[in-house]
Amino acid sequence: MKNTLITVIDKKAPGYQDARKISNLLLLNNNKLSPDKIAYCETSDDVIYVLNYCQQNKKSFRIRSGGHHHEGACTGDNVIVVDISRMDKMVINKATSTIIIPSGAKLENVYAKLNEQELLIPGGGCDSVTIGGLAQGGGWGPYSRLYGMTCDSLVSAQIIIADDESGFKKVEINATNDYKDLFNALKGSGGGNFGVVTSFTFKTQSLIGLKKESFDIKISNGREPEKRLEQWFKNASKAINPITSFVRVYPDTDELKDPIRLYISGIIVVKKNDTDQAIKKQIATIIDKDFPTKDINLIRNTPSSNDKNNKKKLSSLENSFSSHLAIYDAIKVQKDTPAIAAPTSTCDAPHPHKISSFFPKKGIDYASLATAIFEYMNKNKSFGSKANTYLSLHGMGGKIKDGDNFFYYKDRDFMFQIQAWWSNPTDPDNDKYLTWVENLRLDLSKKGFTEGCFVNFPDYNCIRKSPKSEKYNAENDGERIELLIQFYGKRYLGDLLQVKQKYDRNNSFLHEMSLKSGLKGNFFSSELKLQNNGWIGGFEESNPEFKYPKPNLTSLPILDNMANIDKLQRQMKAEWPEFSWITILGVQKSRCFQMFATNISRIGYTAEGRVYSIICPQQGAYLKSVGINLNVEVTVTGQRGWVNEDSREMAADLGVVGKIWFSPDNNANPFIKFLLNELDKTKFPFSKATAIQVNTSRVGDAKGIYFPLLRGETDRFKSPDFAKHENVAFTVANLDVQINDITLTKDPIVDKFNTIILGIFNILSANMLKKTNVLSWNIWFNKPSVVDQEEWRKHAEYWRHSLDVNHCSPDGDGTDAKYFDGKPLQISKLEILIELYKLYKEVIKPNYVALGIKNVSKLNEIAEPLNQEIKAIKAIQKQ
């Protein structure tokens, strides 16, 4: 790199080890994340020069403004790091009430600059973070509820993007010029997706006549921390917007008699003449209006007018957002401090650490959530002064929910951040600290409380379902998509990928968690939503009992599946109706998989989301070599439920009838043909009207006749790769059905006949309908569309009666049954022949008079080939 105006440090330079440092020292262990060079750029031209050098020399690069990316995506092995931390000269424009902030400016300097003019932007809570990554990821901080996320104050930006002619170019982007789509995408999508943002212009807020007060509340074991946390969950997002609060939940410790378990801190912006008592009364509302104000501490420094350092410290409010570590300081007072103790601040310098973030699912019970958190914290205790471990909760609501940005979870009441910080990157207990974070994440996720991940607090593990899952692989596009969905939801991901394709189709700007051009998927973009002709939503919200984690729909009547087609407005078709069952009861490795024909099953609902009709697939079982064709039909007779297109969730209860009968087939076995002609068709299962009725129930509840259709994939097993469609499906729901006895007819001959026929079906289907077996469905739906009611009626009627006609399975692209390793299901012809001959010997022949069979000689003649073929197959098997 020949540009002598750019400082470049390579691996041989004396300062290389310091130059390659990032905030998370843990990631640098064993010389990992060792770039070839670090290029310190001071102008946009410097950046363009370095990017062109990388392109010409086919070198990968990473962008680093502050180095605070928790997963280290701002650096890498053998890459060139484009460091823009020296681009930090700010300019305030009083006339336009704006400030230009280069990407390398640290928040402590941003706040100090603004504080001199009694101005503010809603930045973050950590002094050493730079504006570049903060703003692009949305930016949560101590003023977010009053003024919105950091990106909500963005007026314009200068960004260097890929250019076909010149390699790279700098452009100005805002909400009205030719780059407005890129400007909008920049707000909340995360750093490094579309280019290098060299500077931002933000609108500022005046603090004239106002003051910022920081506060904290310490709640120990003896003062009901779990109850107070539940109150904060319910009330903090409803408090007045000037209060943004922040909570730490600490694990229990044996090292203190009455340790702090809940630490609530925050910022309130008030009038300068407001009294302390008035301020405290407002603060109390984030917990409870009757919370004692004496327990609220206003944290104050009183700097002199010329004390710039104190002004800087006060403006950044580090005294509030770092004082949560007081519990660990208390431990050190009472116990000898190790040679390398846990850090007393998370913002003062790089430290080894691990974080994870997520959001509360809508409709969860906050009391249960608080209990779950403290159960974990009580069981998994503090590491004392060796490491700081805790759960952070960032208050939301207020102006955050009104933001015009790509922050997908803006409607939530708060966000979670699990944190572990320590001082020694080679600490022998590193894995214990990581496990503490991971197990808490998994615990809350498996209990149904959480979803997603905040792009500014990334955790590659957020897509793992268990500690034994493989680590995230950015080279796997499926895993990358899964991770991106955690950040943006499918609703926003489609839009962002369109912008990525437009401005960076060659993936010049690519890192381990960035958007990537060329990713394939049926992503539901906001543009598509507007074209979908009238989705309104809201039915799910009409009753709090309808919501997850345990939707209770019993207040809704079970409605006839065909009686309300005139109410249908919208639908989702099941493009991949897939189910699984165990072929040998009790042996999980025997699990089998099959997909029914596509786009037969559907769920129909109103524009508000109330479900009025569900069409279910049907199936036939046919063994050509034996000449048996059995139909099995699962008919949805009634239902109740809701769909939410925005959250891509649904909940429904289904009433189901399962039936089995012989299909009239020209290639039928001669013995079966004889029975079809001779036996009473009003008694035996030769049509749907006299079919064998297989009784089913909810799993573990024999009296539960309605089956819940619930969001997501079944948790009974991990689907094989060939049965996963999250990259292309709009959503997925699951259903479990347990098999019980058949309905008896009170005619012992018919019942014996039906029992054997069911046994034959179970041979054909590898015990699909074996008593106590469980059928587990994953139903993958394509994108919502508008219902044509007449077409729906015809479709429903056709498939309700389709198996009365002479064919096997429904037409369409279904699959044959196969095991999870892909091997096809093998059917035993011998076992079926044995059962057919058993039918002859034990049912038909002994009762031929009662059955009205006059030509018994013909019966015996037709049955004998069954016996001969059984003997022949057995003889071959013995050879």
UniProtKB/TrEMBL annotation:
InterPro entries per record: FAD-bd_PCMH, FAD-bd_PCMH-like_sf, FAD-bd_PCMH_sub2, FAD-linked_Oxidoreductase, Oxid_FAD_bind_N
MF-aspect GO terms: FAD binding; oxidoreductase activity
Record key words, sorted: FAD, Flavoprotein, Oxidoreductase
UniProt-listed SUPFAM superfamilies: FAD-binding/transporter-associated domain-like (SSF56176)
Needed co-factor(s): FAD
Record-annotated FAD-binding PCMH-type domain positions: 31-207
Top-level taxon in the UniProt lineage: Bacteria
Family that this chain belongs to: Belongs to the oxygen-dependent FAD-linked oxidoreductase family.
Protein's name in the database: FAD-binding oxidoreductase
